[in-house]
Structure formats: C-alpha cells, structure tokens
Design a protein that fits this description.
This protein is of the alpha/beta class. It is built from eleven helices and 14 strands. It has a five-stranded mixed beta sheet with strand order 5-4-1-6-12. A three-stranded mixed beta sheet has the order 11-8-13, with no helix packed on it.
Length: 253
C-alpha cells in the first residue's frame, strides 16, 4: 500500500505563521510539526508520495525517508486537493492507496486500522462536536464550518453538504483508503468532470451519487484534530502531549 500526503497548500487563515513556510511545517509542540505527526506513519507503507506546492523546497528539505517521492503541484494556487491527488497516478500504478491531508494530527492507530481493511473506506469522527465547540463556541459557526454526513449501516450515502438543521453523527477527517481499481475510476471521472477547484468532500459525494464508487466508513473516537486557523493551533497545542507519547509506541501488528 502507498501513502499519499496532500501538502500543496499554504494555509492563509494562519496569517503571518505561513508567510515563510507551509501550514504542515507549523510547530504544534516544541519543534514538532504537523508533518512530523504524519511522518511517524511512513514506516507502515511500501512507498510514500507527498504532493507539495507552496514553498515545496522546505518540505523536501525536512524529510529524509526511504521510498519517499515528491511531486509538485505547480498549479497549487489555482487548484485543489483533488488535482494534487491525481498528479500521483504514475507513482500509484497497481497499488491501493491511503490518502491523508497534511494539516491534521491524529492517533496513529487510525491508519493502522485502515491498512488492515481491504475496502474503500473513510474514517469518520464520532465525538466531533466537542472539539468544534471548543473552536467555534456558537452553534451557528459550527454549522457553517462542519459538513453534513449521511450514512446508512456501514455505507456513506452523502458527504460534504451544508448542515441545515440536525447535526450529523459524524465528521469527515481528511483520511481516505482507496482500492487501486477505484482510484483509476475516480481519475477517469475527474477528467470528464472538468472541475479543477472541486473540494475533496464534494468530489467524493459526486462519486457516490454518480455510482462511480462506494465508500464504507469506520467510526472512530480516537484523537484527531485539524488546524485551519490560529485558534485551532492553540487548542491543539493544549491537547497534544499525551497523544504524542502514544504515537511513539505505535506499531503495525
């Protein structure tokens, strides 16, 4: 299996913190960065492909692992993560892939569990409301930022829409496991779709609605957090230390 890390963006909402470096290189604990959190998982994969963009040389300088491939999205300013994903097609070949955003920090066991499952599957955060409440305080702001997710049994029926009334049970986490055959179908659909700026969740939803692919979901309450702005960064720094020590002990069994 190949790990694909999507790390092309700058992170403008972090303002001055990303003027000199991309979001994934922001410190979250002493000199430990979001990218350090991701790289702790590299040992579990046959190959790691990182799609860079903004100040790509800083990411390349920081990482030194075997079987690590860098691909630059030269159009990162005008495209989105979906475009970055399909730039990896020549490296993927016939392997299944696990995709992760580069601006999240999570319990390593989430990825370990996904590696063992041989399906298209998306982990969904179950106890998500607590962290969103700490970030945004008001319900109005939470509904504006969070996305609707509709599931039935073990399958995702819809994802990425606006929350209208009732809060969903789950939230998308920026992590997806995809079989190789599905990856190829997704790429063909993306070329026909012609939407270079489509968000990842909206793209997944279009795949589902057009019956291009089905996605199961894995409910998890394990630690996970995304960093969009300075408030997010402050919250993560306050809650990260215990999870860093657990990550160091994680092994694939």
């Amino acid at each position: 299996m190949i790990l694909v890390v999507l790390a092309s963006g700058r992170g403008k909402r972090l303002e001055n913190l990303t003027k000199q470096k991309p979001k994934c290189l922001i410190n979250i604990s002493n000199k430990f960065t979001l990218l350090d959190g991701i790289s702790r998982n590299f040992k579990f994969f046959k190959k790691v492909v990182i799609v860079t963009g903004y100040k790509n040389h800083l990411i390349e300088k920081k990482l030194n692992f075997k079987n690590l491939v860098f691909i630059k999205n030269k159009k990162y300013f005008n495209t989105n993560m979906v475009e970055s994903l399909f730039l990896t097609k020549n490296e993927i070949k016939n392997e299944d892939i696990l995709i992760t955003y580069a601006d999240i920090f999570f319990d390593t066991k989430i990825l370990i569990n996904l590696i063992k499952i041989k399906k298209n599957i998306i982990p969904l955060k179950k106890n998500w409301y607590q962290s969103w409440k700490a970030r945004y305080k008001s319900l109005t702001k939470i509904k504006k930022d969070a996305e609707n997710v509709i599931v039935r049994k073990k399958k995702i029926l819809s994802i990425g829409g606006k929350i209208k009334k009732k809060l969903p049970k789950f939230q998308y986490m920026g992590i997806v496991r995809i079989n190789n055959s599905t990856f190829k179908k997704m790429h063909k659909f993306y070329k026909v779709l012609g939407m270079k700026n489509i968000s990842f969740t909206h793209f997944i939803d279009k795949l589902i609605q057009n019956k291009v692919a089905e996605f199961n979901f894995l409910s998890t309450e394990r630690f996970w957090y995304e960093v969009d702005n300075k408030k997010d960064l402050t919250y993560l720094k306050k809650n990260i230390n215990d999870h860093l020590s657990l990550a160091k002990k994680a092994t694939l069994v």
